[in-house]
Specification:
Order of helices and strands: HHEHEEHEHEE
Distance between the termini: 20 Å
Helix content: 25-40%
Number of strands: 6
Number of helices: 5
């Protein structure tokens, strides 16, 4: 169903508003409520959710988060830090090495959804040392090559989850992009 033919001639104005809200991204909870108001025949248009748990499924569930969540064409990846499979910091105190490790983990997570860095539309970086980040930025540029580039925000923080971690990266990707 596309925006040009989403309505029928016998739709009420209220049903048109509900259907438009559903199709334009009312959020998971809102979409479920709207789908219920539209009726069972139209409920199939409600977005579905897929969670990704990674190396640390038990820790993720005990802390109450998913490594990634997909709702329709949008994928949100949690902040990824340089942690090994035993949840220990990798390359403690070396932001450049941690950045390479983190981008490799983000690449793996994106691949679980059949995506790559071309699909990333937003990237947030949290770092403990902005000067060290500036030195490592050429590697980040290699990740995105000549584009497309995501929107990006970088914040310096006092500390990340564990001592020795210097960078955490979270991304949002869109499956609808070629």
């Amino acid at each position: 169903m596309n925006a040009q033919n989403e309505f029928t001639s016998d739709d009420s104005d209220d049903r048109r508003v509900l259907r438009r809200r559903l199709l334009t991204g009312a959020g998971v909870a809102g979409a479920a409520a709207i789908a219920g108001q539209l009726g069972a025949s139209e409920a199939s248009a409600a977005p579905s959710r897929t969670d990704l748990f990674y190396y640390w499924e038990a820790q993720q569930k005990s802390l109450g988060f998913s490594q990634g969540v997909r709702v329709d064409n949008t994928i949100w990846l949690s902040g990824t830090a340089a942690l090994d499979k035993d949840f220990n910091p990798v390359s403690s105190g070396d932001l450049g090495a941690q950045m390479k490790f983190v981008y490799a983990r983000v690449k793996e997570s994106l691949a679980k959804y059949s995506l790559d860095f071309r699909h990333v539309v937003r990237e947030n970086m949290y770092v403990t040392d902005m000067a060290a980040l500036v030195e490592a930025l050429p590697y980040r540029k290699n990740i995105y090559g000549s584009g497309p580039f995501p929107t990006s925000t970088t914040l310096q923080v006092q500390q990340l989850l564990q001592p020795g971690l210097m960078i955490e990266i979270e991304v949002t990707a869109c499956r609808a992009l070629p």
